[in-house]
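Q: What does the assembly look like in three dimensions?
Context provided by user:
Components: two
Sequences:
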Amino acid sequence: MAEQGSGPVVRTVLQQCLRARLQVKPAEENQEAQFVQIDRGMVVYICFFKGATEHILPKLVSTLLNLRLCESTSGPVVSVSELPGSLLLVPQATLGGRARGRTMQYHSNISKEDGLRLYAAFVSLCEQQLLAAAARTGVQVSVQHGTYGNRQVLQLDTNGPYTHLMEF
Amino acid sequence: MAEQGSGPVVRTVLQQCLRARLQVKPAEENQEAQFVQIDRGMVVYICFFKGATEHILPKLVSTLLNLRLCESTSGPVVSVSELPGSLLLVPQATLGGRARGRTMQYHSNISKEDGLRLYAAFVSLCEQQLLAAAARTGVQVSVQHGTYGNRQVLQLDTNGPYTHLMEF
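A: Here is the predicted structure of the complete assembly.
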């Protein structure tokens, strides 16, 4: 989906899950760690590159929510909106890495400030669109997400992750 | 790492894990499902494209085993060979998908016969090289792998997957 002649501005890795659980706040003195969790649905690992702007978000979210990536109980492959399933969004700057010798470099990644802003808008658009689609089915789903810039402590339980790469 | 002017012939997605468990044989009548498991180490999802041959394997395996992708307890990032950690190899044909409209197509993927042969050689080379590297440290590690062409029922427990994409 990346435009011809230029590199992608967003890289995503998509995995199907039966259940996924992500730490959103590490344990502190006198306070246990906090987690978010989804059941059946899709985990989206996302990394923004330099040059990414808000303009990419409608196409990005529409594609992720409407691509037929999920097994349905009735047989055909359907989108996460059609399933309907939940979403777990995981900011993953490491996806922007390029090997130089034995070391990974992340020079193409967006700045932390711009990335945080885009990530927040991405989460918000996913919430709007998935919840609107699911409302039509009457099934309860949710959009959960990790905290930008933090360690993403993740537990994943799948019936086959069906890992896909999508670049924009 | 892909050669200039031509697309990649191998796509891998790499995730760090504390523990990962993969079904290698589904349950049958009178027989429970069979699983393989690793503790601390790296999960390698791999997809071969048309045009991939055995020639790519030494560079592929050497890169995966020696890239510095793993947190060490002492601080610096080290390779899975240096950690040393275990490997779970997961054949993942879905990684070769390209979106056409809302549907994923897998026309660039290698044929099943060639893929099976390359995958077996890949597993074997990972075993040789990781076990040789780990023998020097005296630490017990293992190389586990999924069954080519089967559903990859996976459970993953991470302290941060640090997802990387590497193409060759």
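Follow-up: The helical segments of chain B are 57-66, 112-135.
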